[in-house]
Amino acid sequence: MTDNFRLTKEAAQKYNNHSVPAMFGPLAEATMQKVQLRSGTCVIDIACGTGALTREIARKLTGKGRVVGVDLNETMIEVAQSNQPDCRHVLEWYAADVTELPFEDATFDYAFIQQGLQFFPDKSAALQEVHRILRNDGQLFLTCWRAVSPFNGALAKALERHVGTDAAVKAKAPFSFRDGELISKLLVDAGFKIARHEPLVLERRFIDLRAQIMALPIETDLRDAGADVTNKVVEEVADALSRYDKKGVLHVPQEAHLFVAAV
Fold first, then answer.
1. Considering only CA atoms, which of 249, 239, 251 is closest in space to residue 201?
2. CATH number of the domain residue 19 falls in
């Protein structure tokens, strides 16, 4: 796999401080409200980042089970380990490529992939590998964005005007893979049966819009463009999202696909 998505420790910490509470934490909670896990089972969270969903799985899983978080980035795993919760389960962390997971066949009862599939270079190989490590009655819970969020759409427009096309494309990159029929086909081709497919809507909250923008990969583009350009971009995004303002906090909806796929 290429190193396109390997992050520095600083970037991993920034992701944890900004993206997790604003987006990935709420998404983890919304996902876990929609699924049921058998007590005392083995669960793996793939592309776990700094462990937002992993921790929510550990919180919800009853009995004494095994919960594993895996991410390509060692820096993400380091941050996840530093925030490891006290729980009754065996909790493990691994830095590994999704196409070469360090587990025997039929190891896990459940697998989760939260907003990771769109970034896997070889999606078919990744899903086949997940299928391999699941038991015969196992399930995969998969989320991918369903539509470009109002925030990213507004950000892309402002970047297009003031910074350039490359930065605008980067702002919408997480939403470039959102075709539900294509995702379904990939799952079926990898050996899964689609048990459920439904929309999932979370509310993304922005207390500090500038900090959220500067926590994204387009931070470098904005810093290169200068403070005046950055201020214009932040102001235009704030204006575009003003209808979501509730007492100084932006409550912006963001839609995802939730797939439940059985082995």
1. 251
2. 3.40.50.150
